[in-house]
Design a protein that fits this description.
It is a single chain. The protein is α+β, with helices and mostly antiparallel strands and 253 residues long. The chain has two domains: 75 residues, Arc Repressor Mutant, subunit A (Orthogonal Bundle); 141 residues, Endonuclease, Chain A. It has nine helices and ten strands. 21% of the residues are buried.
Length: 253
């Protein structure tokens, strides 16, 4: 109950004092303090705080002051206060949105870089970046197929189905220990590929140049790791390198 009351906005000591007062009924501060296991002076301060929140009342009887907890139904006031507080914060946030957007636009000239670790992280990065690829576009990539399909054995099947739905073409420069694949290029699967020998070009990673200024790099050595970069200048430069490699790869195909 203390945990729940804390989530409603009461402190731990307020929760203990409220529960003690609720169980005892109208009582003097000393008795409530003993029940809550909090010193008398602190209990008095907390009871005053609860009274201001509408969760406790006090009255005089003779020369003594007695305190009593209000019925549990009053706790709904805490929820209402939380709701009002959230609304107020939302209004405050909306008031500074224009300034935040202006700051974001200033920083928009800088590359956005996101790092991912582990197989799950790389898979999450793939799903995130692939979801942003617009229909009728082209993905350009360098692929080490041995490592890629070892890590994602069903990737080709799922990747092809998703791309066909969006009419997204992939143009790939790939390497493979066993040499060229017979079906590397496939018009029905919207894929054009060129092989390069691994003994001459021993890259162990995947680099994808995606629409929307995105570059996704995955390395398979040691711990799996990946990075996604969003920047027009870097994307254009890497695309120029890919174009050069694509022309050079023709002699191996």
């Amino acid at each position: 109950m203390i945990t729940t009351l804390k989530r409603l906005g009461l402190s731990e000591k307020e929760s203990k004092v409220y529960l003690a007062a609720l169980e005892l009924g109208a009582s003097a501060v000393q008795k409530i303090a003993q029940k809550a296991k909090i010193n008398r002076a602190t209990t008095y301060v907390i009871l005053e705080s609860l009274r201001k929140k509408g969760l406790a009342t006090s009255y005089e009887q003779g020369k003594k002051t007695f305190f009593a907890a209000e019925p549990p139904q009053r706790l709904e006031l805490l929820l209402k206060n939380l709701e009002d507080e959230v609304k107020e914060k939302k209004t405050e946030l909306e008031s500074i949105f224009p300034e935040l957007k202006a700051i974001f636009n200033i920083a928009g000239n800088k590359p956005i870089v996101k790092f991912y670790e582990g197989k799950e992280g790389i898979e999450a990065s793939r799903q995130d970046s692939d979801s942003k690829v617009k229909p009728n576009s082209v993905i350009y990539s360098f692929n080490d197929l041995d490592h890629l399909y070892k890590m994602f054995p069903k990737l080709n099947e799922t990747d092809v189905n998703q791309r066909i739905k969006k009419n997204v073409t992939v143009k790939s420069i790939y390497t493979r220990n066993e040499g060229k694949l017979d079906n590397a290029s496939n018009k029905k699967e919207l894929r054009e590929a060129r092989f390069v020998p691994k003994n001459k070009f021993p890259f162990n990673s995947t680099i994808s140049i995606l629409p929307g200024k995105q570059i996704r790099i995955t390395t398979y050595e040691n711990n799996y790791a990946g990075v996604v970069i969003e920047d027009a200048a870097i994307s254009n430069a890497l695309k120029a390198v890919w174009d050069l490699a694509w022309e050079s790869a023709e002699k191996y195909n």
